[in-house]
């Protein structure tokens, strides 16, 4: 799952640099983390998470936007959602 997420992020946002953040994969712009993956296995949780920081350009006028997603499998639909969010996050 982490490898597929890495492929999505690096393809959709080549301007983000991969780095480790608290021992987990993250992607940064100018040294500031925009999004990151946390393994549920490492955290002994039933699911992993893919999350965005305040550096991501996801805010909108509604006052409500996503910042973290539970991931149990990376279906094609989930991959499309993450692709769209990563694209928006770096816009």
From TrEMBL:
It comes from the Bacteria. This is Uncharacterized protein YdhG (YjbR/CyaY superfamily).
């Amino acid at each position: 799952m982490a490898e597929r997420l890495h492929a999505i992020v690096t393809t959709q946002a080549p301007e983000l640099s991969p780095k480790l953040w608290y021992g987990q994969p993250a992607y940064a712009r100018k040294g500031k983390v925009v999004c990151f993956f946390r393994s549920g296995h490492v955290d002994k949780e039933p699911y992993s998470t893919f999350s965005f920081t305040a550096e991501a350009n996801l805010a909108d006028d509604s006052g409500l936007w996503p910042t973290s997603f539970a991931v149990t499998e990376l279906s094609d639909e989930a991959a499309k959602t993450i692709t769209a969010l990563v694209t928006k996050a770096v816009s």
